[in-house]
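User: two proteins, same treatment. go.

Assistant:
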Amino acid sequence: MKIGAQLFTLRDFCKTLDGFSETLKKVADIGYTTVQVSGTCAYEPEWLAEELKKNSLTCGITHFDYNRIINDTENTIKAHKIFSCPVIGLGSMPGGPAGYEKFKSEIKIPAQKIHDAGLQFSYHNHNFEYLTKLEDGRPLMHHMSDDFTPEEMCFTLDTYWVKAGGYDVVDEIKRLAGRIPVVHYKDMLIDGDKQLMSWVGGGNTMDFEKITEAFVQSGTRLAYIEQDNCNGEDPFVCLKKSYEYLKSIGLD
C-alpha cells in the first residue's frame, strides 16, 4: 500500500496556483509520490497534469465539487482522465444526514456514468454517517453501503472519523472489504478531556499496524495522510512525521 499526502492538510498553502505548485514540490521533496487533490484553488486539468509530471507525482483521488459531479458529469470525467486520476471523490454529502434521500436520488446516474467510463466514484465519511441511526437502528453508513452497489460507490474510509463515530476501524475495513481502494490515515490523540487530530503515529487510540494489515487484506492500494488541524504545528512537518512513521511500519 502506497503512502500519499491529502492536500487538504496543506489547503492554506494552495490558495493560488503559485502556492499550489510550490506545495506539490515540497510534498515530493518529503518523499511522497502521490497526492489527493482537495481544498486547493481552482485549476485547469492540463495545468495539474503538467505540475504532477514535473514533480514525479500521481493523483489517486480528488475531492471534487458535487454540483459538477451531478450536473457536468462528462466534463468531470474528462478532467480526471486528463490528469490520470482514477477516482472521483466526494468529501461529504450536501445537507448532511437530512439530505441523504436527495443525495441518493441525485448521485445514482452520475456514479454509474463514472463507472462506465472506467473510473470510480468514492464517498468520504465523517462521524455523522455513524452517529446517525435510521429507523432500523443501523447507522447511515451501513445503509449507504447497502443502497449503492460497489460499482456505483466505493468508500474513502477515514480512520479518525470512524473512531469518532464510535465504531471499530478494523471491523469497518472488514465490512467494506473490496470497496475501499483509497483511504484516509488520520490519527486521534486523547489529551485529558481533549480529542485532537494528530500526525499519524502521534496519537494514542489506534493501532496502525493492525489497521494497515486489514486495509491490505481488503485490497486498498492508497493511504492518504490527512490532518485537518495540526494544532499550531507546521503542516509540512506533520506530513513528514506521518510519512516517516508509516514507512517504519512497512508502507511504501
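Protein 2:
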Amino acid sequence: MTLHRTILTIIVFLCILTAPYVYAADILNQIHPYISVSGEYDDNINLTSNNKINDFTTTIMPGIKFSNMDAKSGIDLDVSAGYVFYDKNPNLNYICGNGSLNAKYMTSEHVNFYLQESYSRSDNPREQEYLTPVADNKYVLSTSTQRSVYSRNVFAPTVEYQFGQESSIGVNYRNNIYHTDASISENSIENYISPFITYWFDKRNGVHLDYAYTNGDFEASPDLNGQKVTARYMNRLNPKATAFVEGAYTNQSFALSSMDYNIYEPSVGLTYILTSTLTASAQIGYYWMEYLNQDPKYNGLTFKVDLANTDVQTTYVLSIQGGYTEDYFTSQNLGFEKYYRATGSIKHNLEKRFSIGFSGSIERVEYIGQERIDTIWSVGPSASYQLMKWLSLSLEISHNADESNSSYGYIDNKGILRLTASY
C-alpha cells in the first residue's frame, strides 16, 4: 500500500468514527467488500516467438469498493490485493494488487479540487495505459519479454478556479512512479505539472491554453526535461457541435543532448454530441519532428477519431489514432516512434443478469532508426452472468499476436474464468 493510499484509508475511517451515527451508517452501507477467484490459461506467458512456455495460474483477490459521489463532491474507491499461483512455474508466484480512486470537491466559492489515483502490481507483459478505463482497451507500446513483477503508482490532483459557466483557470499535477524487478527494464519517476486556462468570450467563441513541464528521472537512461505548449481556438457551431483549431509545440531535452528533439503539430477538429448517450470527436493535422543535433527529420499526417456510446443496454467505445507516439516511463522507454492504432470494445446486456462483450485492437509501429515494423493485434469475446445477487461468473478469451519483421514477434492465446462474490 502506498503512502497516498494509507493516508486516504485513515481519512475514510476517521470520517466514519467522527460522523453522526446516521451519517456513519450511511457511509458503512456504501462500503462493499468482495473477493474474486480466477483461473487463467496462457499458452505463451513470455510472449516469445519460439521456446514458448504455457502455464495455468490461479489468482485469489479480495477487495473493497466505496462510493458516495454526487454532482458536487464524493469519492469512488476500488482497492484489491491478492496472490497469483503458477502451476508449472511456482518461482513466479507473486502478490498482485490494483487500486483506483476518483475524488472531487466543488466549493461554493468556485474553487474546485479533483484527484485521480491509480495503483497496479502485476507481471503481465502488456501493461494497460494508466488512468484509462478497462473498456478503452488501450495498452502502452512497450512490451516486456521477461515475466517479472512491476508496479505503477500515479497520483494526479487538479485545482481550478471557475470564473464563468465554462471558463476556468487551474493547474494539473502528476506523480508517476514505475518500479520493475526485470533486469532488462529500468525504474522511472515522472513529475508533470501543467497550468491551464479555458476562456469563453461568448456562447460561441472560446480559447484553451496550457503549458506542460515534465521531469523524468530514469534509473539508467538519460534523464528528461520536457515542455509542451498547446493553444486551441473553439467555435460552437450549434449546441451539439464544436469546431476547433489547435497548435502544439513539444521540446524533449535529455541529459544526453544528442537525443533532444522538437515536434510541431497544427491540427483542426470537431466534437459532436450525436445523441444523449453517443458522442464523437475527430481531429486531423500534420507533424514535423526534428532532432536538434542529428540530421534525421520525420513528418506526416496525424489523426484521431473517438466514438463513445453509454446506453444502458449497449456500451461501446472506438478510438483511432495515427501519426506518432512517445513511449516513456514504461518497461522499454521506446521514445518517439511512428505509430498507428485502432482500439474498441462493446458490451451488450442480453438480459438483466447476462451480458456479452467483444474487444479488439490493432497497432502498427515503425521503429525510428531501425528496420523493424510490428503489427500488433488482439481480439477476444467475453461474457458475464449474475448467478445470484451477490455472486457473478465471467469468462474472457483472447488471441494476441505481433507480426514483426524481427525476432520480437509472437502468438499468444489465453482464457480467464473468474468467480466474484460481493456484499
